[in-house]
Q: What sequence folds into this?
């Protein structure tokens, strides 16, 4: 298949493109290579796939309407995986317009490209952050999510609403994937595994928010990618049993689906830090701090819908995943 991967220089985008290429797909990858974090890391990720005969990289911003329109008209993609987005919960408080440009304007451009060229299936990155103020654990795709607590989360929920509209109006198959705290080699430097590992190695204190009283469902990158690729192949279809009187946010009378991809295993923040300490071989000095605006106390994924749909359940133990991440981090940053 010919597949478009947006945000291809990103952590998830590169890994998805790599697996698609390895199995024989043709991949066109686009990325605007912005400087939200170190651009060199994005270039280094691209080095892992740029020499593949079936890969083409184009520097492009999904917010560029004309460029995206021309790309879709020229390439006639069969499937699209949209991982391009302005990421980060906390940064959305500082720079909201970046989220509007990429996550809203850019996503409309992707939807329009798919509609105009009759793409068979659009799969797009949503986020566990859409659950916001929800407290019913584990988070289920069948629960309503109407109370986001960050602009980033609001844009991701908006993506799901926009996708459903296109699925309904144009019979366009779309699937949204709510990722739960993805980590692993080549991960983003603004995420806790990199922040904590780097600080410990440098002998600096780490910031522990809400005094460590937080929980996360940490999901290893290989598990995330396996789930994504299976979903790309599983084209969304209408739910023939959909009951409009008892609406299910995860399905529809239209060809629309939403799934969680998480490890289905909640981890205490202090246990997570201890796991990194053990992998690094050094204890962390900790700054115990208050809760940050826009953050949530806990995330925990119910993945029953994903398992039922594609027969896959993420299962990489945190200790194994962190061991792999720390080994990569030391090698990449030159630590012995």
A:
């Amino acid at each position: 298949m010919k597949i478009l991967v947006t945000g291809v220089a990103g952590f998830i985008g590169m890994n998805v493109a790599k697996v698609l290429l390895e199995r024989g797909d043709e991949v066109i990858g686009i990325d605007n290579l912005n400087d939200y974090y170190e651009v060199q890391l994005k270039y280094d990720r691209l080095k892992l796939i740029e020499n593949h005969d079936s890969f083409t990289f184009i520097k492009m911003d999904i917010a560029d309407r004309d460029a995206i329109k021309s790309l879709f008209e020229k390439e006639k993609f069969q499937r699209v995986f949209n991982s391009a987005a302005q990421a980060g919960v906390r940064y959305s408080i500082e720079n909201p317009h970046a989220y509007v440009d990429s996550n809203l304007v850019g996503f409309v451009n992707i939807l329009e490209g798919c509609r105009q060229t009759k793409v068979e299936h659009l799969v797009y990155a949503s986020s566990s952050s859409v659950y916001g103020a929800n407290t019913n654990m584990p988070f289920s795709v069948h629960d309503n999510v109407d109370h986001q607590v960050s602009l980033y989360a609001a844009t991701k929920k908006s993506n799901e609403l926009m996708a459903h509209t296109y699925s309904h109006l144009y019979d366009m198959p779309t699937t949204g994937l709510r990722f739960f705290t993805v980590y692993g080699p080549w991960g983003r430097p603004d995420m806790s595994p990199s922040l904590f590992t780097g600080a410990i190695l440098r002998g600096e204190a780490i910031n522990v928010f809400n005094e460590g009283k937080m929980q996360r469902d940490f999901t290893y990158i290989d598990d995330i990618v396996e789930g994504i690729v299976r979903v790309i192949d599983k084209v969304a279809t209408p739910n023939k049993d959909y009951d409009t009187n008892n609406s299910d946010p995860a399905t529809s009378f239209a060809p629309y689906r939403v799934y969680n991809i998480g490890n289905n295993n909640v981890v205490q923040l202090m246990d997570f830090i201890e796991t990194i300490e053990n992998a690094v071989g050094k204890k962390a000095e900790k700054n115990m701090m208050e809760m940050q605006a826009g953050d949530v106390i806990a995330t925990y994924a119910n993945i029953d819908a994903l398992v039922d749909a594609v027969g896959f359940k993420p299962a990489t133990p945190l200790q194994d995943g962190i061991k792999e991440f720390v080994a990569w981090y030391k090698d990449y940053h030159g630590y012995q």
Summary: The two ends are 42 Å apart (CA to CA).
